[in-house]
Design brief:
Helix content: 40-55%
Number of helices: 8
Shape: globular
Distance between the termini: 31 Å
Radius of gyration: 16 Å
Length: 229
């Protein structure tokens, strides 16, 4: 692994800062939804969640939690198969998601910190988090994963970047080819440096009481992991 990827970057992403104005935020989230269409993105998350629902004897009206919903693109596609609680800690992000979703039936927006969800135990069938964990330091990531485990009856699906030279090069190529927003270009490259390796992610999940059940292809910059208690 290249020296600059040997350890995880601690630099802050612009999305996590206080100074991002509304147009810049909307442009960033819209471009992230575009990037989510690439292999390893929303389709991989959707497939993993639906398989878990099928295998785990989901409730008659399945309910899925989407933590860090962003533009709401996963929630939109998941709503064809289950009801969705789309969660984000940012009121501004949820405002963008609300406009994107346009009052889509079956999707409820909830402003909450993923580390302290205002939901009872086993409130949902599956908890899903895409491109969220790399935003969190290790201690916060464990708290978030523990909360997702607590509220999910069947399991937790984590879709995120993996840190490594080839994943970094793949992410950088996609960002520079498809993104025009300065925020997306800055944060996209930095995200690949802030990402955890799959081994690091599994250690965090284990501390949260989760074990890996299966993974999507490791060849892509983004990997989807299904965790169970």
């Amino acid at each position: 692994m290249a020296t600059f990827l040997a350890s995880r970057s601690l630099d802050d992403e612009l999305l996590d800062g206080p100074d991002l104005d509304a147009p810049a935020l909307q442009a960033n989230l819209r471009e992230m939804a575009l990037l989510n269409r690439l292999p390893g993105g929303v389709s991989a998350s959707l497939a993993a969640v639906r398989q878990l629902l099928r295998e785990g004897a989901a409730s008659p009206s399945p309910l899925v939690l989407d933590a860090g919903t962003g533009y709401g693109d996963f929630a939109r596609r998941m709503a064809a198969h289950a009801e969705v609680i789309a969660v984000d800690s940012s009121r501004d992000v949820l405002a963008v998601a609300a406009r994107s979703l346009g009052g889509l039936p079956g999707v409820r927006l909830l402003q909450a910190d993923v580390r302290d969800l205002p939901l009872p135990d086993a409130a949902v069938d599956v908890a899903h988090a895409s491109l969220l964990v790399h935003h969190l330091d290790p201690a916060s990531a464990v708290l978030a994963l523990r909360e997702l485990r607590r509220v999910a009856r069947l399991g937790v699906v984590v879709n995120d970047l993996q840190r490594g030279l080839l994943p970094f090069l793949g992410t950088a190529a996609a960002i520079w080819a498809l993104a025009r927003s300065g925020v997306t270009r800055h944060d996209g490259i930095l995200s690949a440096r802030r990402a955890y390796t799959l081994g690091e992610l599994d250690l965090l999940a284990a501390e949260a009481g989760l074990r890996p059940m299966r993974r999507s292809l490791r060849a892509w910059p983004r990997v989807t992991t299904v965790y169970a208690s």
